[in-house]
């Protein structure tokens, strides 16, 4: 088991080995994805939508990403862990951006940060990188710019916008990014950007010719039946599995078939006393002498 680093990802690109990345927000899912062999885990600001139920990623705070990142780190042994820089944690000033990136690493345990935006963020990226923090870029459909884009719409469809995105990608590489997420752009454009860059591209809604792919784990698992954009493939019927389990639990509790005997504790030394306690008059009190379970009479 060798830890995945930014150098590993670079090598994977040069060997033509595809990079796999998933989002994760807690230790349990992080452990499962890590053990399954995923190369990188992103504590995405998508947590605002899939975990918190917000309408966009905009309300997510640095403290919240730190909280989730700590949990993900506890569940991860091999995968490279990246923390998203939330909206307004890097846009207002370079100093603030460096401080917030530092918090995600020092307090959250992230091994790199990701931020959305093109050439305009070259200075921010180079200052964060110079502070010793690897930066993953993110261009194309950038959810934090939802209001400027007029919705979650595919970017770079005309020649001028496509050229702009190629220039952005080159500027991010020159500024020191070790990898770039390409989201919601035509496959042809993603292929061209991937060909032009030495650093790996990670696609989401950008076709198969990126150096790697990322998916929001709740989408991968099919946990939200109402969300079915073109770029998502559900690799499991998570919603069906979760609801099926919850319904079976409800039925069994109501039918008194759960907990069964094998889910119950037993004692050979248990004695039943008629209780002198007024509040429990109609119930005998169970007194357990030697077991971990002690059941006392309710106080009057
Ligand atoms: O926040 C997120 O989950 C992301 C990925 C979709 C790339 O930015």
List the helices and strands and how they pair.
Elements: H1 6-15, E1 19-23, H2 27-36, E2 40-43, H3 47-50, H4 62-75, E3 80-84, H5 94-106, E4 112-114, H6 122-130, E5 135-140, H7 146-149, H8 159-175, E6 179-183, H9 187-196, E7 201-204, E8 212-215, H10 217-220, H11 238-254, E9 271-273, E10 285-287
Parallel strand pairs: 1-2, 1-8, 2-3, 3-4, 4-5, 5-6, 6-7, 7-8
Antiparallel strand pairs: 9-10
The protein binds 3-methyl-2-oxobutanoic acid.
Estimate percent helicity. Answer: 25-40%
- CATH architecture classification of the largest domain: Alpha-Beta Barrel
Largest sheet: spatial strand order:
1-2-3-4-5-6-7-8
Structural class: alpha/beta
Q: Which residue ranges are poorly predicted, with pLDDT under 50 across at least 5 consecutive positions?
A: 291-300
- The H-level CATH homologous superfamily of the largest domain, spelled out, is Phosphoenolpyruvate-binding domains
What gyration radius follows from the Cα positions, in whole Å? 25 Å
Describe the structure.
Helix content is 37%, strand content 14%. Mean pLDDT is 93; it is low at 291-300. The chain is α/β, with parallel strands linked by helices. It has helices at 6-15, 27-36, 47-50, 62-75, 94-106, 122-130, 146-149, 159-175, 187-196, 217-220, 238-254; strands at residues 19-23, 40-43, 80-84, 112-114, 135-140, 179-183, 201-204, 212-215, 271-273, 285-287. It is elongated. The termini are far apart. An eight-stranded parallel barrel has the order 1-2-3-4-5-6-7-8, surrounded by seven helices. Strands 9-10 form a two-stranded antiparallel sheet. The chain has two domains: 6-233, TIM Barrel, CATH 3.20.20.60; 265-300, no CATH class. Residues 23, 42, 44-46, 84, 181, 183, 204, 214, 216 line the site of 3-methyl-2-oxobutanoic acid. 3-methyl-2-oxobutanoic acid (KIV) binds next to strand 6.
């Amino acid at each position: 088991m060798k830890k995945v680093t930014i150098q590993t990802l670079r090598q994977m690109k040069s060997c033509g080995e595809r990079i796999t990345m998933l989002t994760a927000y807690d230790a349990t899912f992080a452990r499962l994805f890590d053990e399954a062999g995923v190369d990188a885990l992103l504590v995405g600001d998508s947590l605002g939508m899939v975990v918190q139920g917000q309408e966009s990623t905009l309300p997510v705070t640095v403290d919240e990403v730190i909280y989730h990142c700590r949990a993900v780190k506890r569940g991860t042994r091999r995968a490279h862990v990246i923390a998203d820089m939330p909206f307004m944690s890097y846009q207002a000033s370079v100093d603030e951006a460096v401080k917030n990136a530092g918090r995600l690493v020092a307090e959250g345990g992230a091994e790199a940060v990701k931020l959305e935006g093109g050439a305009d963020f070259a200075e921010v990226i180079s200052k964060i990188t110079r502070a010793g923090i690897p930066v993953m870029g993110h261009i194309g459909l950038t959810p934090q710019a939802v209001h400027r884009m007029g919705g979650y719409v595919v970017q770079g469809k005309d020649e001028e916008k496509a050229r702009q995105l190629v220039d952005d990608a080159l500027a991010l590489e020159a500024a020191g990014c070790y990898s770039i997420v390409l989201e919601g752009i035509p496959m042809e454009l993603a292929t061209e950007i991937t060909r032009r860059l030495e650093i790996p591209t990670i696609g989401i809604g950008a076709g198969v010719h990126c150096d790697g792919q990322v998916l929001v784990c709740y989408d991968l698992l099919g946990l939200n039946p109402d969300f079915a954009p073109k770029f998502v493939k559900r690799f499991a019927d998570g919603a069906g599995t979760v609801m099926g389990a919850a319904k079976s639990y409800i039925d069994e509790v109501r039918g008194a078939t759960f907990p069964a005997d094998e889910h119950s504790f037993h004692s050979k030394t248990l004695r039943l006393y008629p209780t002198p306690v007024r509040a429990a008059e109609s119930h005998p009190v169970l007194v357990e002498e030697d077991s971990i379970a002690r059941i006392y009479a309710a106080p009057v």
